[in-house]
Specification:
The structure is a single chain. The chain is an alpha+beta fold. Helix 24 links the parallel strand 28 and strand 29 (about 770-775). It starts with 8 loop residues before the first helix and ends with a helix.
């Protein structure tokens, strides 16, 4: 829509007091920030937007010989993402050479130690320093303007050394977000009325804050652009990702981080991270800039692979995160008594005081400077160490090797029970020793070796286009993927030409293992015997499991005729029309891309049916749910034009016997709320990718009723329905809504919440009149309102008679993969396998009564597949996905987050089937 709140920066500047002196004083001929902007960035009550930032970048690039501006791609809304490469003129003249050196050392393949040393002597340290990933964290975007100016205009010895010894890549991660947030902040003429707490939508088009959880999946265009720079073009030794906000009572969190340590990556990278962190703290303290904290000062860890700074570790790069206070509106640092006592994790406490954005900018300058200075002083060592880490990964992948995980330590302890170590060693202040022979027999058990590689034969894939999407995620992350050009043997098994091979003998071995192998998160308690300590993010995310990829783990070395895939992304083999029948086409339900084809056919007015039972075609059996498309010129045209989807269509001489489910074009209402809910944003992106027609619906529209006239399906993603704090359904995304008069009229219709008294009657009428309601995650509080036969399973009763989720000491699964059983004969599960790995993040499964049907459920005492689970045995017998009738309509309740962050392709079908199946059933009633 046309944004009515934009006001010219020059007009707004009239409302601001004149600054006494510039934040960055004028040096030389380059225009300073104070000269180039209507108000100097960093001033109180002012934010420069991306348009102004971009204009300044181009001005600097036109006038300075220390900068080269590079376009790295387009944002989700089509803005250019610029990287400002800053170095000496001599280095900029040889950028291609230095980039080649960085690549050779990072990939390490075929580079001897002597060659590596020569390259390190010649090369330049490469450092990435970014801004703006999370757009409401405004310090980074405004400070980068000053850092660039000072680096381009500075004449001091340190600046010149940095320019000579390093190549610094200054990137902006989220142009769209900066434009939105800055324009929203500046919309009010009175500076005291400016704020960005109430921006109306997510600050990345689809995923908001989760743009920093997309790194290993690389589905957003901004993530792909960054990964291309990091792992396919420039291979920086340091990736510095800057954030907000700092811990209360402090100014900034600076590494190192708390445990747990992810066992897959090199110990060198963690030791280097601690070196850089120490240099950053030391610089602040030496400049009397108090208030920096580390480790216990904040919950950040290095376990999860999905963030900009953490994906670096799995690629042998130093990933840095800082979290600083500040913003355009002045604030106060509070007095927290316990923080006034100096300690290892906060050596120079800060007292209470007023704080301005320009204060944060000076801290950010010191932090950036410390990182650049470290890189300049340690140039050769950084380059050699990234080679050493890559070479060590290649060596480990070329021989028998073992990764020691928490479960392997438990296995040693179990094997040692009842046994005394030879000599009975007990060491001072340490745990008792065990028999050293257990190191070889348990920790180096031949059966527990790390794989030498993974093989993915195309014919073995149930959903080959999804497997290709998995391989593309690897390729975007710089992983070497190969394709067999001839048949070969590995692990006593014969594989055909065309098989995909991912060997672990490569520099990015840590990332490969992390994508194929289950995460084994340690049990991390607040204290011995205490409740679990919450991880910073999720604990289990094995991508091959989430996407349902079929692969073989090969433990012994193997060779073959392989060619490396050079492209950043590959396409699935084109779909074919197989056979010569003229009655119509049968199409398997296994491929997610079949939903795209279905939606195209329905949009073209072509009839599409689902066949309830198995069908046999061309020597293979299609599982329940195969698509039947009666022959017509329109149908053939759509099928032929959709060959790129990689979905085969089997031409038949007669229609399938028996009844079928006739699908209908659907109208989906995707429920969201003012400000945007991230799971709804991810779902929006998914619906667009698979071409489901939808509209975003807000609570006021629900409350108005008459929903069946507009929609066939209402989809409530995790977080879109308010939950009771401390109630049965954990989670939810809440913040106070603005008053209508405080926001532009265009957005007032987005206000409101889903409520029992106003929304529920309208939603019930919709369902009973033939509509389909789908609830996911915490939104299942609505499912229980609609149908009391669906109740939360893992609860305890409170004194007031209400229920609460089990306490964490009894049951706690913080973002892990749990195996569920599925009935693929049911339409909601068509195309799925009898077992599937589901993402489970403090989710609430169900107990059911009456006529509610279970579609997916948990069984057994140990369903954990990847991650961490306390009390997982309590899941046994509970229901994950339920199918209930509501009058003429349907309610599909999905406890786990079946679409979380658009990663679990193996469970997308539950949502997609529900969207099509519910309306098909209603049409028969």
């Amino acid at each position: 829509m046309k944004t009515a709140f934009l006001i010219g920066a020059a007009a707004l500047a009239l409302a601001l007091p004149a600054a006494s002196e510039p934040i960055s004083p004028k040096v030389g001929a380059l225009p300073s920030p104070a000269e180039a902007f209507a108000t100097e960035p960093g001033s109180d009550y002012y934010l420069a937007n991306y348009d102004a930032y971009e204009k300044y970048l181009k001005t600097l690039a036109a006038q300075s010989d220390r900068i080269k501006l590079v376009d790295i791609g387009k944002s989700a809304e089509g803005r250019t993402m610029w990287v400002a490469i800053v170095s000496s003129p001599a280095n900029l003249a040889k950028l291609d050479r230095y980039r080649t050196i960085a690549q050779q050392l990072a990939k390490a393949d075929g580079v001897s130690e002597a060659q590596a040393q020569a390259l390190a002597n010649e090369g330049r340290a490469v450092v990435w320093i970014d801004a703006g990933l999370h757009a409401t964290e405004t310090v980074t975007t405004q400070s980068q303007i000053h850092v660039l100016y000072r680096m381009l205009s500075g004449q001091d010895a340190e600046t010149k050394r940095i320019l000579d010894e390093t190549i610094v890549l200054f990137g902006h991660d989220n142009p769209d977000g900066l434009q939105l947030v800055a324009d929203w902040y500046m919309r009010n003429k009175d500076p005291k009325d400016r704020e960005f707490r109430t921006i109306p939508r997510l600050y990345q088009k689809y995923v908001g804050h989760d743009n920093n959880r997309d790194s290993f999946m690389s589905q957003m265009p901004e993530t792909t652009a960054l990964n291309r720079v990091f792992f396919r073009q420039w291979f920086p030794q340091i990736i510095f990702n800057q954030h907000q906000t700092g811990p209360a009572g402090m100014v900034v969190f600076v590494p190192p981080f708390r445990d747990p340590f992810n066992y897959n990556y090199s110990p060198i990278v963690m030791n280097e991270l601690q070196e850089v962190g120490a240099a950053m703290h030391s610089r602040l303290v030496s400049e009397d800039k108090a208030g920096s904290g580390a480790r216990s000062a904040a919950p950040y860890s290095t376990w999860h692979n999905g963030m900009v700074r953490s994906v670096a570790y799995f690629h042998n790069s130093i990933g840095l995160l800082t979290e600083i206070i500040g913003g355009p509106t002045p604030e106060k640092i509070p007095l927290i008594p316990d923080l006034q006592l100096a300690r290892n994790d906060e050596t120079l406490p800060i007292g209470p005081r007023e704080w301005h954005l320009k204060d944060s900018l000076e801290y950010q300058w010191s932090l950036d400077r410390a990182v650049m200075d470290y890189a300049a002083r340690n140039r050769e060592r950084l380059l050699m160490n990234i080679w050493r880490m890559g070479k060590a990964s290649i060596d480990k992948g070329s021989r028998d090797s073992w990764t020691i995980t928490p479960k392997r330590i438990d296995a040693v302890k179990d094997a040692a029970k009842g046994k005394t170590a030879p000599g009975g060693e007990v060491y001072f202040r340490g745990p008792p020793a065990v028999d050293s022979a257990l190191y070889g027999s348990v920790l180096n058990d031949p059966a527990m070796r790390d794989p030498r590689g993974y093989i993915l034969p195309p014919a073995a894939q149930r959903d080959l286009p999804t497997t290709i999407a998995f391989l593309n995620a690897l390729l975007k992350n710089g992983v070497d993927v190969e394709r067999a050009t001839a048949a070969f043997t590995a692990g006593n098994k014969r594989y055909p030409a065309g098989s995909y091979v991912v060997r672990t003998a490569q520099a990015y071995r840590p990332h490969v293992l992390d994508m194929f192998e289950p995460q084994d998160h340690p049990h991390d308690a607040e204290y011995p015997g205490g409740p679990p300590k919450a991880p910073y993010d999720i604990t289990g995310y094995t991508l091959a499991y989430q996407m349902g990829v079929q692969f073989d783990r090969v433990l012994d070395g193997f060779t073959g005729s392989f060619e490396k895939v050079s492209a950043e992304a590959i396409a699935p083999p084109a779909g074919r029309i197989i056979g010569g029948g003229n009655a119509g086409w049968l199409i398997g339900h296994e491929a997610n891309n079949g939903f795209t084809l279905t939606n195209r056919l329905l949009k073209a007015g072509v009839p599409v049916h689902w066949v309830p039972g198995e069908t046999k075609v061309a020597g293979r059996t299609l599982a329940a749910g195969a698509l039947w498309v009666p022959a017509s010129p329109g149908a053939r045209a759509v099928i032929e034009q959709s060959a790129a989807l990689g979905v085969d269509a089997y031409a038949q001489s007669r229609a399938p016997a028996g009844t079928t489910w006739k699908l209908k074009p659907v109208r989906v209402g995707l429920v969201d709320r003012y400000g945007g809910v991230m799971p709804a944003g991810w779902t929006r992106w998914l619906l667009e990718q698979y071409e489901f027609p939808f509209e975003v619906v807000y609570p006021q529209q629900l409350d108005a009723g008459n929903l069946k006239a507009k929609y066939d399906v209402l989809l409530f993603a995790d977080g879109t329905v308010p939950v009771t704090r401390g109630g049965a359904y954990p989670g939810g995304y809440r913040f106070d809504l603005p008053k209508p008069e405080a926001i532009p009229a265009d957005y007032r219709g987005w206000l409101g919440e889903v409520t029992q008294d106003r929304s529920l009657p309208a939603i019930r009428d919709f369902a009973e009149g033939g509509g389909t309601v789908i609830t996911v995650g915490s939104a299942n509080t609505l499912a229980t309102w609609l149908n009391p036969s669906i109740q939360p399973a893992l609860v305890t009763k409170k004194p007031d008679g209400t229920t609460a989720a089990l306490p964490h000491k009894d049951f706690y699964i913080p973002g892990s993969l749990i195996q569920a059983s599925v009935d693929p004969r049911q339409p909601l599960a068509y195309g799925m396998t009898p077992k599937v790995d589901m993402f489970f993040d403090e989710s609430q499964p169900f107990v059911m009564s009456g006529d509610v049907r279970r579609v997916a459920w948990f069984e057994g005492a140990s369903p954990l597949r990847s991650g961490w689970a306390v009390g997982q045995e309590k899941l046994n017998g509970t229901v994950a996905v339920a199918d209930a009738d509501l009058g003429r309509g349907k309610l599909f309740a999905m406890g786990p987050e079946v679409t979380q962050r658009a990663q679990p392709y193996a469970t997308f079908k539950l949502l997609f089937n529900g969207i099509l199946y519910g309306p098909a059933v209603a049409a028969t009633r």
